[in-house]
Design goal:
This protein is mainly α and 180 residues long. It has one domain: Hypothetical protein af1432, CATH 1.10.3210. α2 runs antiparallel to α3, α2 packs across α7 and α4 packs antiparallel against α5. It starts with a helix and ends with a helix. It comes from Desulfuromonas soudanensis. This is Phosphohydrolase. GO terms for molecular function: hydrolase activity. Keywords: Hydrolase. InterPro entries: Diverse_Catalytic_Enzymes, HD/PDEase_dom, HD_domain, HDIG_dom.
């Protein structure tokens, strides 16, 4: 499976959306594979790299002109739309990473209570590989104004903290396991 060829199929090279997605995803993939390589337990390293490259493939369906995306859906929808796209490509395992990578994860109850534009189902990263990609994603924005700057853990922690103590506990546990 060639994740870059798949990205090129949905995002024409030379477009802003292609550049933004590729820049962000390659940064996330580099961090995720570095985290995976440090762990002293079995990790599917090729899968981590592929999933990190594809985790945001659903942004093309969103209304995010600053990212070169002219879809009609709210930005959060990129998670489940990415899942649908990758499932249609026969990549069910990769699709779950798309679906479950928002923040440190979302519960069905939280989605309903906050009226988020997502299916009302649990969307937590379950497997070690899903958690690694989700963790790595927290350190990078797709906003072109950030110029590929990697956020510090303190910045990531501050961002997650506003969603509650439970989310912060998940992040802190990941930091303990995956490192800075």
């Amino acid at each position: 499976m060639n994740p870059l060829a798949l990205i090129d199929r949905y995002y024409p090279p030379g477009t802003l959306a292609h550049a933004v997605l590729l820049r962000h995803s390659t940064r996330v993939a580099a961090r995720a594979t570095a985290v995976a390589a440090r762990l002293r337990c079995p990790v599917d390293l090729p899968f981590v790299e592929e999933a990190a490259l594809l985790h945001d493939i659903g942004i093309l369906y969103t209304d995010a002109p600053e990212l070169g995306c002219s879809g009609t859906l709210p930005y959060l929808a990129h998670a489940y739309k990415g899942r649908e796209l990758l499932e249609s490509e026969g990549l069910a395992r990769h699709a779950l990473v798309c679906d479950r990578h928002i923040g440190v994860g979302l519960s069905a109850a939280e989605i309903a209570a906050r009226h988020l534009p997502l299916p009302a189902r649990d969307m937590f990263p379950v497997t070690l590989e899903e958690q690694i990609v989700t963790y790595a994603d927290l350190f990078f924005s797709k906003n072109p104004q950030e110029n590929d700057r990697e956020r510090s853990f303190a910045e990531v922690r501050s961002s997650v903290e506003r969603y509650g103590a439970e989310k912060l506990q998940i992040l802190d546990a990941w930091y303990e396991r995956f490192g800075p």
